[in-house]
């Protein structure tokens, strides 16, 4: 009886983890550049004292779906989308370089270029990008070059201030950090800029989450969770029946 109870209990617990993962995907169905997390479950051998006769279920996040999301035209000068494979380099909260597909950019009051999540954009020199304010116009080229027209300057006085760092690592070598940014699986590894990565101006890449698929997975996990609870209840009833027979004996 305890074997069935343990298996059902561990299965129900992992079903809850799986529902949390799919719920997070659904919550980010409209998040710019979001990559959906994948989920799978497998049985694992439990080792310890005695015979190795116990197994338990484990939910894993083996990786992410790297397919491109739908591209939405905005016409905004500071909106960019990476065409095909590639990533925008940013700085995370700790100042470490990370990578994202979120290209909704803004300039803060100090002139630092950042995305909508507050991550500073990285320039070709590896540092944050500073925009000399005030400006009348800003343009981002297909190669990531950032040009500005200082306020009060003639129309032909456009100056190049920096260039967005664009990289194209092997997606298999990336993992998603807890902050939603991607980093190399090799600790501390920084990828070099790739001149072949290009941008589409005035557009944003949406999330690649399939809302219908995520809802279907959540319903399936919910039904599986209910089945595990019923199995735990059955194990409890069988244990109670065994105790009654022992008392009669």
UniProtKB/TrEMBL annotation:
Coiled coil: none
SUPFAM superfamilies noted in UniProt: Flagellar hook protein flgE
Keywords: Bacterial flagellum, Cell projection, Cilium, Flagellum
InterPro entries tied to this protein: Flagellar_FlgE/F/G, Flg_bb/hook_C_dom, FlgE/F/G-like, FlgF, LlgE_F_G-like_D1
Assembly description: The basal body constitutes a major portion of the flagellar organelle and consists of five rings (E,L,P,S, and M) mounted on a central rod. The rod consists of about 26 subunits of FlgG in the distal portion, and FlgB, FlgC and FlgF are thought to build up the proximal portion of the rod with about 6 subunits each.
GO biological process: bacterial-type flagellum-dependent swarming motility
Family, similarity comment: Belongs to the flagella basal body rod proteins family.
Localization per record: Bacterial flagellum basal body
Gene: flgF
The Flagellar basal-body/hook protein C-terminal domain, residue ranges: 201-245
Keyword DNA-binding included in the entry's annotation: no
Family annotation (Pfam families): Flg_bbr_C, LlgE_F_G_D1
Protein name (record): Flagellar basal-body rod protein FlgF
Cellular component aspect of the GO annotation: bacterial-type flagellum basal body, rod
Flagellar hook protein FlgE/F/G-like D1 domain residues: 82-148
């Amino acid at each position: 009886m305890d074997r069935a109870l343990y298996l059902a209990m561990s299965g129900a617990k992992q079903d809850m983890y799986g529902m949390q993962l799919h719920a997070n995907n659904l919550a980010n169905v409209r998040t710019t550049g979001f990559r959906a997390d994948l989920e799978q479950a497998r049985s694992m051998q439990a080792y310890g004292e005695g015979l190795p006769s116990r197994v338990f279920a484990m939910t894993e996040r083996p990786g992410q779906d790297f397919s491109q999301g739908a591209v939405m035209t905005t016409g905004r000068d500071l909106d960019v989308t990476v065409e095909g494979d590639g990533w925008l380099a940013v700085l995370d909260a700790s100042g470490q370089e990370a990578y994202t597909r979120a290209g909704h950019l803004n300039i803060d009051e100090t002139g630092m270029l950042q995305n909508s999540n507050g991550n500073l954009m990285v320039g070709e020199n590896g540092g944050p990008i500073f925009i000399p304010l005030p400006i009348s116009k800003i343009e981002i080229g297909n190669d990531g070059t950032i040009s500005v027209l200082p306020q009060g300057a003639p129309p032909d006085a456009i100056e190049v201030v920096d260039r967005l760092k664009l990289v194209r690592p092997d997606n298999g070598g990336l993992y998603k950090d807890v902050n939603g940014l991607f980093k190399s699986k090799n600790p501390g590894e920084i990828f070099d800029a790739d001149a072949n990565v290009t941008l589409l101006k005035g557009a944003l890449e949406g999330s690649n989450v399939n809302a219908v698929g995520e809802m279907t997975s959540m319903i399936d996990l919910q039904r599986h969770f209910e089945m595990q609870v019923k199995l735990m209840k059955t194990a409890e009833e069988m244990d109670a029946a065994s105790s009654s027979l022992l008392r009669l004996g």
